[in-house]
Amino acid sequence: MSGAAAAPLAPPSIRRRLASMLYDGVLLIAVVFFGFFIPNVVLGSAANVLLPSSILLFHFLLVVAFYFVWFWRRDGRTLAMKTWKIRLVSADGTRPSMDRLLLRFLLAWPSVFLGVGIVWALFDRNRQFLHDRLSGTRLVATA
Fold it and tell me: With contact defined as beta carbons under 8 Å apart, do 117 and 111 qualify?
């Protein structure tokens, strides 16, 4: 039947999402090393300059945001999400807008680190994290 709508993709298990988050955390060590630490060490050594902590924090967040948002925008998956067969889509299943991706990134920090977003997923009707629900995105299993 060609007129039938495709069934929505199921959300990945919470265990799978947590494994992906842990793997992304390991990958972030390298991203932060090359994108944040090395440039600041080179700048500090070459110019004998130590940047103010507010600029360092902004630089750090910029590097981490670039990693996530670039991959999410590119094909909906970070390297870890590819491994764990998870894709980020908008609530209606389409490619999320840049505004939604940036909002998701900002909301994920308190959601994940305070644990509220993860606990939320245990009770959410679609098993989505709180930051996905608030940003109009969702995670789906690709296999």
Answer: yes
